[in-house]
């Protein structure tokens, strides 16, 4: 019998409980779609028009899938540290696996992460990137970088595989080279997402990918009106991405939504 550490045991128990709950719930709903706000169409409310691209299956099915993505000790420890200090919500295991997939699919050599947190998403990204690649991660909190550095070491990544920059992303990003990066991942202040998008398009090489976590308002599709001021910014971000002809967008229903887009070749 395999012996589990206390952290692994807690994670396994939580996954089993989540699976039990989601297995008893509906796997779809009439509201399982993403809508574009501010557009009218005959016979419906102005908030009811579906986006023309990337159908979204908003259901508890993503919760079930999340439960089947395993995390090892370094990831579980990073997640536990984030819960301990508060103020930083790690990506879900399923979102992390998507980030790893994207990095591996494009054989990423240079990646920018906006919002280091305690290292959870950084580990997932590094595990998808090619050998010898470098992750540049930006965060305003020195404590986040201290914990992330420990998480990267625990996951087997030497100091040459990552570069941690402390500061506001909007002040750091202008110092990074144009068209020099394969992937830009944003998981920080959602009010600055539109500006991160502008910076990311400049930083990415043709064929590179930009991805935003928390790209869906949890109340979307529920008929509720969100009072979160950040939701308007996230909606604006989606409008910008889907309207940009230089980008090929996709919305992935993981966590609170992962919005990804490939930069077209000129």
Keywords:
alpha/beta, Rossmann fold
Question: Any overview of this molecule?
Answer:
The protein has 266 residues and is of the alpha/beta class. The protein has a single domain (62-218, 234-263), classed as Rossmann fold (3-Layer(aba) Sandwich), CATH 3.40.50.150. The chain has 9 helices and 7 strands, in the order ααααβαβαβαβαβαββ. The chain has helices at 6-23, 61-67, 73-85, 93-105, 120-128, 142-154, 169-172, 193-203, 229-243, and strands at residues 110-114, 134-139, 162-166, 181-186, 204-213, 247-252, 258-263. The chain has a 7-stranded mixed sheet, with helices on both faces. The termini are far apart. Residues 12-59 and 221-227 have low confidence and may be disordered.
Q: How large is the radius of gyration?
A: 19 Å
Percent of residues in helices comes to 25-40%
For the biggest β-sheet, the strand order reads: 3-2-1-4-5-7-6
What would CATH call the architecture?
3-Layer(aba) Sandwich
Distance between the termini: 55 Å
Structural class given helices, strands, pairing? alpha/beta
Low-pLDDT regions: 12-59, 221-227
Number of separate structural domains: 1
Mean pLDDT: 81
The top level CATH class name: Alpha Beta
DSSP strand content: 15-25%
Individual helix count: 9
**Silhouette:** globular
The CATH topology assignment is Rossmann fold
Order of helices and strands: HHHHEHEHEHEHEHEE
Going by CATH, the homologous superfamily would be: Vaccinia Virus protein VP39
Helix/strand layout:
Layout: H1 6-23, H2 61-67, H3 73-85, H4 93-105, E1 110-114, H5 120-128, E2 134-139, H6 142-154, E3 162-166, H7 169-172, E4 181-186, H8 193-203, E5 204-213, H9 229-243, E6 247-252, E7 258-263
Helix pairs in contact: 1-2, 3-6, 4-5
